[in-house]
Amino acid sequence: MTPNPKIRELIVSMGIMPESEHYDIAERVISQCVDIAYQYDEPKMSGPGMIIASRIETHFGVEE
To answer: pTM for this one?
Structure first.
């Protein structure tokens, strides 16, 4: 797994030396946040939840 630079930056900003399990946890949290944002607007397929989810994915370089 190639560590995402934004996730690494987040982990280091907390004063933690990044290890593989830290990336796994961070990626799961980010994935859950994206899912919640998408679910907010799922019935209408547009709205602030979709915009927020997209911005989170772009910021953290989430790949489908």
So the answer is: 0.76
Q: What would you report as the CA-atom Rg of the chain, rounded to the nearest whole angstrom?
A: 13
Query: Contact 48/26 with Cβ under 8 angstroms?
Result: no
The SS3 assignment for 6 reads helix
pLDDT, one tens digit per residue, over 15-63 is 988 888 888 888 899 999 999 999 988 888 788 999 999 999 998 887 6
Q: How far apart are the first and last CA of the chain?
A: 15
CA 29 to CA 33: how far, in whole Å?
Answer: 6
Total domains present in the chain: 1
Domain range holding 34? 5-60
Rounded alpha-carbon distances, angstroms, from residue 60 to 5, 7, 10, 39: 8, 7, 10, 19
Taken as a whole, the chain contains a residue count of: 64
